[in-house]
Amino acid sequence: MEPDREDLRQTGREEEDKPDTSHSRRGTLRLVLIVVSALVLVLVLGVGGLYAWFAVSMSKANRQPGMDEARQALREALPPSSTTSSRSSSTGTSGSTTTTSTTLAPPIEKPGTMNILVIGADRRPESEEKWGRSDTMMIAHIDPQADYLSILSLPRDLRVNIAGHGTQKLNAAYALGGDGLAIRTIRQVTGLKIDHYVRVDLKAFEAIVNEIGGVYVDVDRRYFDSGDVLLRINLQPGYQRLDGDQALRYVRIRHDQDHDWARIQRQQQFLRAAKEQVFSWDMALRIPPTVGTLMRHMATEIEAREALRLAWWSAQLDMNRVKQVAMRGKDQMIDGLAYVVATDSQIRAAVNDLMTPPPDTQPTTTTLPDSADRSPRNPSLDFSDAYVEVRAAGGSADQVSSCWRFLADHGAQVASGAKEAAPRDQSEVVYPAQMERSRTAEAARVAMALGIRTLREDNSLRHVVVFVGRDFTPPEPDATLATVEQAQWRYASEKAGLALEAPGWLPRNYDFAGSRAYYLATDAKDKPAVRFTYKLRGDEQYLGITATTFLDSPAASAGEQVTEAETTFTIVGTADRVERVWWKRNGVLYWVSNTLGSALTRDQLLDIARSASPIESL
Question: How far is CA 512 from CA 221, 314, 375, 402, 451, in A?
């Protein structure tokens, strides 16, 4: 049957007023660097006749307030008392004067090796501050000779000495003295020669994503936070097109157990997706307004020629050659203020990492793995990590007792809740989805095993609650993992109206964590889609399996191909980071997506894909 459009249309978030998100934009500028570079490359190749227009637009960014001070600071010699030894790039072009040419053709050649300081500034209209605040500070090291880009994010609360102002947090340098003082302070701290400087308004990321029409992202899990204290977000798992606001929240959220590490993984995933999709056939039509949007939010002394060289190089850069570098430090309260305190050796280690190329990787074999190497999953249902409350809600005493006993027999810690006053015709599993106490995956497993199809979020709860209604049918006491998962796949197939294939093998320790049937928004007609999510037990790593009739989805991108029994499997990613394996059969596009941390190998993903067979044969 057709999925209900009102229930299943992919919206990505609840319809509610958006709060001010300027505070949530910290740390996103690393995304702008490569995404915008890729956009500019399309401009050069697709509409090269507009180079003169681009040069004029770039010159506006060159003339923004503060750029004269930035040029002066860039020309100054590196102080001899820097924390680390001086590290200069080989062919940087700092100190050049602003010129605009409308006659030269775009220069398609490699840029020089350089260090670019990028600051994200947030100056609110009602503020009386002269410069505003620097909420993001990063150094991008560009090395075309070794063919890599590395990015060092500097902690905004890093305890440093600011010339003329004593000991302060690093982000105070921009607030106290603008672009020039920020450049001088960061050079002093890192010992790095800074060749170029970019200041971006923190509204840039959201605006650019909207200008390009959104970005399709394979969201790995349920992301929900009410926003009462932390960043508000509301995304369902599955492949979907994110607009600027949604994308910003997705790359900023860090409320799970992996915190900043998971956030970096999401940012890298988004970068790869944006770079992959930016070359769509109609992108040239969107480039002029996109570049115009960027110029309204950016100030830099980088001239048009250098920007185009950076664009040409970075747009072709393999994402496996992009490094994220972290600076280690210790959180400390000093005189009532929260600082990040890093030692000289910790700062040197971060700078050394920034300047070190990522390791070369060898290509993998193009042969299919031997299916005999698969390790079987535990066939038993295991709820030993679950706490479940069972409440009577119209179901008989026998129904409630059988539910309680089934869960307990399979290892769950079960509690009996108060009887509900109002009886229900349908049983429900209710659970909290708030990220710091989410029980989404746990609730999905419980509902699947009990055969309950109605799940509901209630963030006033602290654990999973089963409401046993009049319709409850006790599961077979000897039910296995295979039988309940097959039933879930059949239910999803019927709800989506798709003749699905389900995997016959999955890696050990990956538990069912939810499924959904929904409509996937496209530029033409919305397409039905099904997403199954599996969670690595004890870790925030999620494997995804997607099926849709959106056959020309960006997910079906180029990659290594292997063929078996007339089916071609395409492996997307790099040697050490396979993102997904996709294939098409009977008018349906399928893919298996790796976890954010690339926990699964190429061979494991291929084994999942090649084990898929029609549900009717299960």
Answer: 12, 39, 17, 22, 13
Reported in sequence order, the residue ranges of 439-507 that DSSP labels E, i.e. its strands, are 455-457, 464-468, 501-502
The pTM assigned to this predicted structure is 0.76
Do 481-617 and 22-354 fall under one CATH topology?
no
**Element of type H or E holding 148:** strand 148-153
**Residue 304 and residue 323 in contact, taking contact as beta carbons nearer than 8 Å:** no
Asked if 321 and 358 count as a contact pair (C-beta separation under 8 A), the reply is yes
Class of domain 22-354: alpha beta
CA separation for the pair 150, 288 (Å, rounded)? 28
Q: What band does 118 get if pLDDT is binned at 50, 70 and 90?
A: confident
Q: What is the mean pLDDT of residues 390-409?
A: 96
- 523 CB-contact burial (10 Å; exposed 0-12 / middle 13-18 / buried 19+): exposed
Name the CATH code of domain 481-617 (choices 3.40.1010.10, 3.40.50.170, 3.10.350.10, 3.30.200.100). Answer: 3.30.200.100
The tens digit of pLDDT for each residue in 214-251 reads 999 999 999 999 888 778 999 999 999 999 999 988 98
Residue of 427, 527, 532 whose CA lies nearest to 488: 532
Do the beta carbons of residue 85 and residue 344 sit within 8 Å? Answer: no
pLDDT mean over 392-406: 96
Alpha-carbon gap, residue 470 to 345, rounded angstroms: 66
Q: Is residue 388 predicted with pLDDT exceeding 90?
A: yes
Which residue intervals of 140-219 are DSSP H helices? 172-190, 204-211
Q: What is the DSSP string of 13-78?
A: S-S-PPPP-GGG-TT-HHHHHHHHHHHHHHHHHHSGGGHHHHHHHHHHHHTSTTHHHHHHHHHSPP
Tell me if residue 393 falls in helix, strand or coil.
coil
Considering only CA atoms, which of 187, 182, 180 is closest in space to residue 170? 182
Give the 3-state DSSP-derived string for 62-119, with helices as H, strands as E and coil as C: HCCCCHHHHHHHHHCCCCCCCCCCCECCCCCCCCCCCCCCCCCCCCCCCCCCEEEEEE
The letter for the amino acid at 41 is: L
Q: pLDDT at residue 427 above 80?
A: yes
CA distance 588 to 450: 30
Phi and psi at residue 159, to the nearest 5°? -80, 115
**Mean pLDDT, residues 188-195 taken together:** 94
Residue ranges per structural domain of the chain: 22-354, 387-468, 481-617
| Structure token digits, residue 615 | 């549900």
Assign 3-class secondary structure to 427-457.
Answer: CEEEECCCHHHCCHHHHHHHHHHHCCCCEEE
DSSP E strand boundaries for 282-326? 298-300, 322-326
Distance in Å from the first CA to the final CA of the chain: 20
**Cβ contacts of 566 within 8 Å, gap of 6 or more:** none
pLDDT at position 1 is: 44
Could you tell me the CA-to-CA distances from 199 to 67, 182, 185 in Å, in that order? 9, 11, 15
CATH of 387-468 among 1.20.1440.80, 3.40.50.10070, 3.30.70.2390, 1.10.730.10: 3.30.70.2390
